[in-house]
Amino acid sequence: MTRGIASMNRAPRLIRLSNPLSRGLLRLGMPMGPNTLLTVRGRTSGEPRSAAVAIMEMDGKRWIIGAYGAVQWVQNLRAAGEADVQLKGKTVHVRATELDREAATIFFRETMPAYVAHFPRIGRAFAKILFGSVAPEILSDPERAAETRPVFELHAA
């Protein structure tokens, strides 16, 4: 499913520059909070492509947010519908279902605040600073977030 992503289709420069380091550390098994390695088949090349992403886990469900819009890994995941993720040191194959706008709005209105509320105080502050600088609508405008930030629910394959 393709939805219009109006606000961004590239990660900020600092993120793009740090991605090789993040991918390398994640490949080595370095714990980085909710960040993990997503490997998905390239939509054009068919070659495996890896990206560092944050996986949200809550109540037995997992999601990935395209916080920077329709970046390359988002487009590849849309095309492939499946990927491998590193979870607790193991590679897990998952199916990815992109939420439609209505479901994504509910996700940003209800699930996201509940997820952030589970963080310790410093984690909540960090989330507010991070999202406030790169994607403020994620925490403040669920309808706009659903329009501009794709959300995928991950299911065991």
Structural notes for this entry:
- The chain has 157 residues and is an alpha+beta fold.
- The chain has a single domain (13-156), classed as Pnp Oxidase, Chain A (Roll).
- The protein has 6 helices and 6 strands.
- A 6-stranded antiparallel barrel has the order 1-2-3-6-5-4.
- It is globular and about 35 Å long.
- The two termini are 19 Å apart.
CATH level-four homologous superfamily name: Electron Transport, Fmn-binding Protein, Chain A
Terminal Cα span: 19 Å
Rounded to an integer in angstroms, the radius of gyration calculated over CA atoms is 15 Å
SSE string, helix = H, strand = E? HEEEHEEHHHHE
According to CATH, what is the class? Answer: Mainly Beta
Which strand order does the major sheet show? 1-2-3-6-5-4
**β content, as a range?**
25-35%
Q: Which features characterize this protein?
A:
single chain; 157 residues; alpha+beta; Pnp Oxidase, Chain A; 6-stranded antiparallel beta barrel; 6 helices; disordered N terminus
Quick synopsis:
The chain is an alpha+beta fold. Helix content is 42%, strand content 28%.
Write the layout of secondary structure elements.
Elements: H1 13-27, E1 35-41, E2 48-58, E3 61-65, H2 72-80, E4 82-87, E5 90-98, H3 101-117, H4 121-134, H5 137-140, H6 142-148, E6 151-156
Antiparallel strand pairs: 1-2, 1-4, 2-3, 3-6, 4-5, 5-6
Helix pairs in contact: 3-6
